[in-house]
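2024-03-11 09:14:02 INFO worker-7 job=invfold-0412 stage=load source=structure_tokens
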């Protein structure tokens, strides 16, 4: 075993049925196109405290059934508990098209507008949970950041509107996967983005986030071919850990 391994790429290992035991240092697992991988073994990933990025695109053995939904929930809770202690991004990419129930704000379509409640921002606010369902023929965006190959992902555009009649947009990549192979089936990306990533860009221009009244989420407008089918959005607070685990 490699004791300092941080990123594991098992892409297109079509005979792989079970994930190997991994070192505690592991942060990212890409097992895309591992068509024999079975659901009952994937749960071992909840043993790794440093984990922050998981991708199982085109893993047809991970059938969209109750067992897979339970596994996705377990992985989400595992990563969410970690971000309570150590703020940071995380994402999970899985086959299927169901937006989990714990995303309270859900909408079908290529974009979504979320009305923010009054005083939505307080010292317990952590960040945004985002779920995106898309096919894997139109969502690719290549990036190059210390990996063995190009790492595609989804580029999301956020437009923030404030009571001061300002509108500001920014782009963020979420849901990185380990292959650029197009797949004609729906997949779901579950991602969490800490609020500090947004606030660092706007804190010099606005007194309080409570001046924001709406956030629009959409595909990157510079890439018109990207087609996103449905969304789930949730404002995440520290108290949500108890809600998610109940």
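2024-03-11 09:14:09 INFO worker-7 stage=emit residues=246
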């Amino acid at each position: 075993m490699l004791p300092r391994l941080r990123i594991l790429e098992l892409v297109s290992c079509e005979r792989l049925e079970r994930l190997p035991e991994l070192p505690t240092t592991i942060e990212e697992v890409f097992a895309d196109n591992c068509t024999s991988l079975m659901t009952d073994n994937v749960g071992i990933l909840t043993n790794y405290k440093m984990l922050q990025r998981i991708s199982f695109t085109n893993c047809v053995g991970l059938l969209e059934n109750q067992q897979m939904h339970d596994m996705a929930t377990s992985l989400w809770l595992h990563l969410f508990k970690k971000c309570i202690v150590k703020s940071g991004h995380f994402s999970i990419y899985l086959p299927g098209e169901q937006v989990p129930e714990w995303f309270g704000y859900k909408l079908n379509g290529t974009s979504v507008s979320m009305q923010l409640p009054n005083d939505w921002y307080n010292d317990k606010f952590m960040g945004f949970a985002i779920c995106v369902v898309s096919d894997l023929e139109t969502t690719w965006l290549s990036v190059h950041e210390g990996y063995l190959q190009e790492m595609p992902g989804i580029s999301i555009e956020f437009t923030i509107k404030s009571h001061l009649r300002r509108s500001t947009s920014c782009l963020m990549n979420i849901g990185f996967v380990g292959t650029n192979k197009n797949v004609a089936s729906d997949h779901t990306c579950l991602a969490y983005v800490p609020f500090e990533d947004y606030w660092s860009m706007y804190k010099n221009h606005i007194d309080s986030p409570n001046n924001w009244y709406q956030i629009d989420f959409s595909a990157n407008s510079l890439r018109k071919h990207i087609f996103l089918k449905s969304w789930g959005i949730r404002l995440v607070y520290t108290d949500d850990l108890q809600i998610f685990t109940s």
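2024-03-11 09:14:09 INFO worker-7 stage=report msg="The longest helix spans residues 66-85."
2024-03-11 09:14:10 INFO worker-7 job finished
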